[in-house]
Amino acid sequence: MDEQALKPGALGLEGTDSPRQSSPLEETLVELYSTLRPPLVGYAYQFVGSAGDGEDLVQVAFLKLFDQLKRKTEIQNVRSWLYRVVHNLAVDHIRRKGVDDDVVTDWWSSHPEETNQTAEDVLIAQEQIARSLGVLNDRERYCLTLRAEGLSYQEIGDVLGISPKSVSVYLCRGLKKFEGRNDSKA
Predict the structure, then answer these.
(1) How far out from the chain centre does Cα 122 lie?
(2) Distance between CA atoms of 55 and 62, rounded to whole angstroms?
(3) Sign of the C-alpha dihedral, residues 138, 139, 144, 149?
(4) Do 50 and 119 belong to one domain?
């Protein structure tokens, strides 16, 4: 090996031992990422059915956010903007892979409430939820899912590209269908 390549500075690595100073933008993104990553991954997982793919979609969404903020684009509500980007990326992912919409149903049915129920009770409840969610149309299901993630009507509307009033209507219809189906089974 050439002695020149072994000299300090020959590879352009001088000063790499000193800590890198992060910009305020990077610090903000790191804070947002640590706060919003878990619910965004959960939301993406409901669509794509894979934690790895969901994580990838969330990382792409944060890269897009970084690009937008670096360009000094004004974003009114970063949380709803991120959910919208993840939603759109997930829909594109599903279209490319041809994944069925039953992923949402599977996710909901695999997260039983933490109670003192028997395994049989949990299984029955999961099946009821899966069947009930299957009755909902996509908008109703998306609205219910986003509301369960804690988003406001305005944020849900921003994510889905509809008005808060439409969100209210979809939630009401979805809940009525969901409750009506479960009441008739009781």
Answers:
(1) 25
(2) 11
(3) positive
(4) no
Nearest CA-CA partner of 46 in 101, 97, 96 = 101
Domain that holds residue 56: 23-99
DSSP string, 143-158: HHHHHHTT--HHHHHH
pTM, 2 dp: 0.60
**CATH number for 131:** 1.10.10.10
Do residues 94 and 28 share a domain?
A: yes
Q: Give the whole-angstrom CA distance, residue 52 versus residue 34.
A: 17
For the chain, what is the radius of gyration of the CA atoms? 22
pLDDT digits (tens, 9 = 90+) for 66-121: 999 889 889 999 999 999 999 999 988 888 876 544 554 455 455 555 556 677 77
Q: Are residues 116 and 73 in the same domain?
A: no
From first CA to last CA, the distance across the chain in angstroms is 79
Across 144-153, average pLDDT? 87
Dump the DSSP string for 52-64: HHHHHHHHHHHHH
The answer on 124 and 47 residing in a single domain is no
How far apart CA 112 and CA 172 sit, in angstroms, is 23
Same-domain status, 115 and 94: no
